[in-house]
Amino acid sequence: MKTPTIPGLDIPVRNIYCIGRNYASHAKELGNKVPKIPLVFLKPLGTICYDGSSIQLPKQSSDVHFEAEIVLAITKSGKDISPARVNDHIGGVGVGIDFTARDIQSISKKQGQPWTIAKGFDNFAPISSFTELTPEQDLSELDIKLFQNGFVKQHGNASEMIFPIPNLVTFLSQQFTLHPGDLIFTGTPEGVGQVSSGDQLEVLLNNGEQSLKVTVE
Ligand code: ZN
Question: Cα of 195 to ligand 1 centre, how many Å?
Fold first, then answer.
């Protein structure tokens, strides 16, 4: 298998970091407490696919959910990056879907086990193309919308995040040295829901600056 690349930036994907429960309204809809430090998990590389992909529903799950998320692409290495320097390390911004087998995740949560299987099936992380970040870009103004079969199901804005983007990147870089090709899924706003075979999903960054369309098989 070829290493997946980041569309628009043409660099290989390295790690797929994801943040859970970063919008208070979404933590609430799933009955979770608002975290005090960011909740971090990883998705395997085989989850990456692109605009126009079909998502096959795994036979292990009967409750796969969409989670639309703003996705950051790291293009400059860094450790202990200060919030003021975060823009220098983010080369691009796009959108993605953190598909989640909610039934499998619920069992893992109850058993205190990691979410890797629930979050890690093939094609469970479609990503759009990435817009290059300008040094002046205000990361708190990024906006995301998800449509399921033409109806708006999720609408979030980075200003509503519990841990704003600069703080997230700072926190991650305190744990792990970040390198070009690392992607960061920044968490999903409220409105997550189940997908069915035949569904068309569309995610927009800033009302269409970037878009991602996928079909559920
Ligand atoms: Zn998510």
Answer: 15
Label residue 45 left, alpha or beta by phi (over 0 means left) and psi (-120 to 50 means alpha): alpha
Residues 6+ apart with CB under 8 A from 122: 46, 47, 56
Q: Report the separation in Å between the CA atom of 21 and the middle of ligand 1, taken as the mean of its atom positions.
A: 8
CA of residue 26 to ligand 1 center, whole Å? 10
- The pLDDT value given to residue 28: 84
Closest by Cα among 142, 104, 149, 109 to 124: 104
> Is the overall model pTM greater than 0.90, yes or no?
yes
- How would DSSP label each residue in 107-174? HHHHTT--SHHHH-STT-EEE---EEPPTT--GGG-EEEEEETTEEEEEEEGGGBSS-HHHHHHHHHH
- CA distances 18 to 60, 72, 177, Å, are 22, 10, 15
CA 19–ligand 1 middle distance (angstroms): 6
| pLDDT (tens digit per residue) in 57-83 | 999 999 999 999 999 999 999 999 999
Location of structure tokens 């690349």: 5
Q: What is the pLDDT of residue 27?
A: 79
Gap from CA of 70 to ligand 1 centroid (Å):
10
Neighbouring CB atoms inside 10 A of 213's CB total 15
Q: How far is CA 129 from CA 100, 103, 138, 148, 178, in A?
A: 21, 30, 19, 20, 20
